[in-house]
Specification:
six-stranded antiparallel sheet; alpha+beta; 2 domains; Cathepsin B, Chain A
């Protein structure tokens, strides 16, 4: 077992595991930087991805993509493995890596996390929670889970049967036993690391995702969602609306797919970039994205009030979405126009 692995509370599980693992290896990096350099900011609301007949919003890039892109842009060596339906091979590989003293980031379904249920009431299936396995004692795995809702930085435990089940739950975005781990980075290379090239690449990609993709994506996709929500008034039974909006709320605030929390996280990344580049335009973009995050938080609050039959309408929700769309467009248009197209290249 790795006895000195850091297990500090983090904002998001995927970036939290990344940051804690890098800290263990001696590379000090912020969670905001990982999320930003990894291109975590995203939005999609398309009729091609539906659940119960309604589009299924996506607020961040696909699971594992943030870690993959951040590793590539930072020059880290990342190993990823999936196992199809071969559960025995997946468990044997995990055991082998852990026995060699390698921290292994593991994707699991929260329904099987007994330690989660002790502190976080949940009754939903989510396949992409991320934690780090740092040891095995008998038939119990030692877990470093950085989820901010857990009460402290203590390690926790998970028995072998639950681990097998949690890694191979069928359904949307099944993980197929996915794990990843890193080669130990060269401490000299990362002692005074220059983040500027990685930040610039990530910002350019974010502008493309949020400004240039078709109408179901980015700022245009948020406005498209607003128009759809506004049009639901009187079109569907109230019970259907309650179920759909509850699913949206869980995706926004509970299940880790990224709503207002990810916008706040990315806004802090922009603030860090502003300091690195000494850029007033990036500082302004950080402020405008914070306003977008506030609008997403208002949308979430409206959902709760609507379901409690308080004085909130679908039109109010659409207004909040339009505000989020406007601020997100402003954020990335400003980055492209006043930073990427004007500042010198590094």
């Amino acid at each position: 077992m790795i006895s000195n692995f850091p297990n500090e509370r983090r904002i998001h599980c995927e970036t939290g595991c990344f940051v804690n693992t890098m800290k263990y290896y001696g590379f000090d990096i912020t969670e905001e930087m990982v999320f930003g350099v990894g291109g975590g900011i995203y939005f999609m609301f398309t009729p091609l991805l539906q659940k119960r007949g309604f589009p299924y919003p996506i607020w961040r890039d696909r699971p594992s993509q943030v870690c993959r892109k951040a590793s590539r842009r930072l020059g880290l060596v990342l190993h990823e493995k999936t196992f199809g339906k071969n559960v025995d091979k997946a468990m044997a590989t995990l055991d082998d890596l852990v026995n060699r003293g390698i921290p292994v980031t593991t994707m699991v379904n929260v329904m099987y996390l007994v330690y989660f249920a002790q502190y976080i009431p949940h009754n939903y299936s989510f396949n992409w929670h991320t934690m780090v396995v740092i040891g095995k004692e008998g038939d119990r795995y030692v877990i470093a889970d950085s989820d901010f809702r857990l009460p402290n930085d203590d390690y926790t435990y998970m028995d072998e049967e639950n681990m097998r089940n949690a890694r191979f739950v069928p359904g949307l975005s099944k993980t197929r036993g996915r794990i990843h781990y890193f080669d130990k980075p060269d401490p000299d290379k990362y002692k005074d690391f220059d983040f500027r090239p990685a930040c610039r690449k990530a910002l350019r990609e974010a502008c493309y995702h949020m400004l240039d993709m078709p109408r179901y994506f980015g700022a245009k996709g948020i406005k498209y969602m607003a128009n759809k929500v506004r049009g639901w008034e009187g079109k569907y039974p109230r019970e259907t609306m309650d179920i759909t909006l509850l699913a949206y709320y869980r995706l926004l605030e509970k299940a880790g797919t990224g709503g207002s929390g990810y916008r706040y996280l990315y806004a802090r990344f922009l603030s860090q970039c502003a300091e690195i580049f000494q850029s007033e335009s990036l500082a302004a973009s950080s402020e405008s994205l914070t306003k977008a995050a506030d609008a997403w938080r208002t949308f979430s609050t409206h959902i709760l009030h609507y379901r409690k039959n308080m004085d909130v309408t679908l039109g109010d929700m659409a207004d909040a979405l339009e505000e989020a769309s406007r601020y997100e467009y402003e954020t990335f248009h400003n980055i492209r126009k006043n930073f990427l197209n004007k500042s010198k290249r590094f």
